[in-house]
Amino acid sequence: MTVYIAWTSADLQQFDSLRDLVGPWREVSVAAAELAFVDSDEALSQVYHSLKWALPEGVALVVAPVADLPKTKGLPPGTTSWLRARLR
User: CATH number, domain at 83?
Assistant: First the structure.
């Protein structure tokens, strides 16, 4: 399993079903309007392209694997626990 961080210029909070979006992942945790963490067994390219196709055309998107538990501040309750459960 790999946790990916995804940043986009789209407002992810407008997608009520993003967490349930069918893709090559187990779960998506929206941490902020433009930031999400993705739990997947698939390669970076597969996760990136699935998110790209799910978002509106023309929005910016960056996806990268998360190697270690990041330092965080101001994210929704449970985000750090979600990450800790997957990265330790």
Answer: 3.30.70
The domain total for the chain is 1
Over residues 68-82, the pLDDT tens digits come to 999 999 999 999 999
**Residue 29 has which token pair?**
């945790």
Give the start-end residues of each E strand in 9-78. 27-32, 35-40, 61-65
Q: CA-to-CA distance for 56 and 68, rounded, in angstroms?
A: 30
35-40/27-32 β-pairing: antiparallel
pTM summary value? 0.89
Q: Nearest Cα to 61, choosing from 3, 5, 19, 2?
A: 5
Q: Mark 63-85 as b/e (b = at least 16 C-beta within 10 Å).
A: beeeeeeeeeeebeeebbebbee
